[in-house]
Every structure is written in structure tokens, then in C-alpha cells.
Amino acid sequence: MASTVSVPVGSSPWQLARAELRRRPSVKVSLVVVALFAVMAVAAPLLSALGGWSPEEFDKSAVDPYLGGQPIGPLGGVSAEHWFGVEPVTGRDLFARVVHGARISLLIAFAATAIVVIAGTVAGIAAGYFGGRTDAVLSRLMDLTMSFPSLIFMIAMMSVARDVNRVVLMTAVIGLFGWPGIARIVRGQTLSLRHREYVDAARVAGSGPWRIIGRSILPGVAGPVIAYTTLIVPGMIATEAALSYLGVGVRPPTPSWGQMIAESVAFYDTDPMYLVIPSLCLFLTVLAFTLLGDALRDVLDPRGSRT
């Protein structure tokens, strides 16, 4: 039976939303998983130091050269020295590479999401509030960006640019193709808000457009933006993993979950743990953010959850 949370009479919509989220077990579990991986990403150097290995450090004594570099011991070499086992051939510590891979994946995902949300919110509010030529130009730009086969262009751009910071490049490229979706949502919400009574009253009282946007429009679109931001993050994580899996993302020796999954394919039959561990981390992270985003959308943007 789901637990009930008492809410005082006269509570604000945000208090009601928090109470509803606390009532859902899926939200609590998702928050725990998200917090776990976020701490793992932030504390990656400390965690790898506790494990005793850096992500680039080889341990030739942990693999058997006479068996094609297979890890020595059960479950891919899991032991007190190597908590998640080791990579075949190289002997690099899998725990250190997983936690540093979490750092790269979440850093790119969060940074790209920030670009997408800021650019999309600004463009959507501008198009919806000012209308006219501003709306026409921004709407055509949204259509143009969304018409590109984004994954193909990401692969092409990442392949052409070589001597650059791969993390910065991936963040910029993913953010470049991601903003129109949230811009359309914000534009529609702004169109429904700009002729509300309290907005017209502020306009008649002499408030300028930027004051109206800051005090009336932005709070009105905040709920949907927060909800869809949480839904964007798992897509960003999956996109980074896909690009790294295809070999055009983060390059060795920098660890990435997608890169580790790609390298583990050759050993799935002899060392399945090498494939299972990064795949499980990717799956749990994406699932947790997706469940959390669905719950936030249901609570903060119920009309959007029915479309």
C-alpha cells in the first residue's frame, strides 16, 4: 500500500508536487540511484584511490598471457585487490574505469542538458512572447535543426574534428541538436500564458517585456521545463554512450561506459562481467532518470503527460 503524505490546507503547487513525489516509491528509488551515480562521478578520483588503482594503470599480474590475456580468477578477476575485476589483456582495474567513466558520461550529459535547456527556454520564450517575425525566424530555425539526421551529423562532426578536447566537443555537438525540442514545449506554454489576466494586468500597469517575462512567464514555464529536463538527461547519457561505442566519442585511455561496452564485445563469451558491469551502470542510470522524469512530468505538467 502506498504511503500517504499529509499536506496542509492552502499549500502552494510546489508543496503539493513535493508531497506527491514523496508518495511514489519509484521516485525514492530513482533518487537513490541517481544520487549514487552522481556521488560516484564526483568522487571518482577518491574512489579509485581507495581501490588502489588508477584507470590507466596496467596490472599484468592479473591476466594470464597464456590464455590470451584472460583475467585470472572467477568473475573476470574479481578479488580484494580488484573489486570489479580487470580488463582482459591490459589488466586495468575495472572499478576505477567504471567510476571514471561515470564522471565522463554524467559530465557530458549534464553540460549538454544545461546548454539545451538554456537555449531552448530562451528561444521558446522569445518566440512565444514576442511573436511576429521573431516567432517566424525562431520557429523556422527549430524546424531546420530538427530536420537534420542528428546522429549522422554528430558522427560526421566528431570524426572530422580531431585535435580538440573531446569532452567539450561532444558537449557542444550534442547540445547543438537538442535544443529545438524543449524550445517547442516552452513556446507553446508561453503562448498560453502571454494573454492571461495577470500578464495583461502587468502590461497595463506599465511593466516592460523583460519584467513580465521574468516575473510572470518564466515561473509559468518552470514546471514543464524542470520535468522535461529530467527526461532529457537519460537521452544525453545514451547519446554520449552511443558516440563512444561507435568510436567517435571519448578516446582511450579516457574511460567511458560506451567505449568500455564496445571493447567488451570481443570478450563477451570468455569474460561476460567485462560487458555486464558497464552495461548495467548505463542501464540503471538511464532507467532512474527516466522514471524520475516521468514522475516529474506527471506531477508538474499533467497536460503534457497526456499528449
Gist?
Helices cover 70% and strands 1% of the residues. The chain is built from 12 helices and 2 strands; from the N terminus they run αααββααααααααα.
pLDDT < 50 stretches: 1-5
Give the number of DSSP strands. Answer: 2
What's the end-to-end separation, in Å?
Answer: 29 Å
Instruction: Indicate the percent of residues in helices.
Output: over 70%
Note the overall shape: elongated
Number of helices in the DSSP assignment: 12
Task: Determine the structural class based on helices, strands and strand pairing.
Answer: mainly alpha
| Largest sheet report | 2 strands, antiparallel
List the helices and strands and how they pair.
Layout (H helix, E strand, L loop, with lengths): L12 H11 L1 H18 L1 H8 L11 E2 L5 E2 L22 H37 L1 H16 L2 H11 L5 H28 L3 H8 L4 H37 L11 H8 L7 H29 L1 H4 L2
